[in-house]
Amino acid sequence: MNQHMPAQHQKHQPGDEHEMKPQPDYEPRYRGSDRLKGKVAVISGADSGIGRATAVLFAREGANVAFFYHDEHEDAQETVRLIEAEGAKAYAKSGDIADRKAVFSFVDEVLEKFGQIDILMNNAAEQHYQEEFENIPEEQFVRTYQTNVFGAFHLTQAVLPHLKEGASIIVTTSITAYKGQDVLMDYATTKGALLAMVRALSGSLASKGIRVNGVAPGPIWTPLIPASFPSEQVREFGSNTPLGRPGQPNEVAPCMLFLACEDSSYMTGQVLHPNGGTPVGG
After folding, report:
1. Among 26, 145, 187, 266, the one annotated catalytic
2. CATH superfamily, domain at 19-272
3. 187 catalytic per annotation
4. pLDDT digits (tens, 9 = 90+) for 57-79
């Protein structure tokens, strides 16, 4: 049965979770089993959505979590509270993920606070609705790449020298990298670039024992959705999937956990597809 969300719209990217109705589901669905005990995870964009759900799940599994976010301070404070409620330590810093100096400074602060980094999740993103390719402003195209691709590039370069054998890098790509999205064309191309990054970087780092994998979510109920689409399209969001509804962030976070922990020790250069049942290939 198709499930519809209430029509709604937010005026800024990447959106605020506390303004959404209904609120996304971030709560882990099961008790932790210390799969990340003693680990430190760095996540971009963990103030809300998939990033928040993953941060809380990582914390439940024993990891301390540091995250970089844009300017959604209320959401970020709630994520810190949720991490600490799981008995883990949290560190959050706001800034522009496209600012290389800010990203490197953040990583230095994480190392000063926690002394190590074991897991990197490149997750921060923005997207903009536009029906005609020729009407995409150059400024928007450039900005989307700066956030989605250059942000992952900067953060990975900053973290990589500090990763040891057994570390894991996870990249949030998208179903749009495989199927396209005719109203998110610039966003889709960035997610294709990130997919290529997973495949290329995994080969480069395999000899060092560092795994690189991706997750390609389908339509997931996060702040990006009301911040991107017209309100009436938000109402139909995800209803055309085989499961007939959008996914929730806590339905994606277990993919991140699987790739972060030793359960996936024989996987690198791969992508998981929590997308509501849509077949993808390539």
Report:
1. 187
2. NAD(P)-binding Rossmann-like Domain (3.40.50.720)
3. yes
4. 999 999 999 999 999 999 999 99
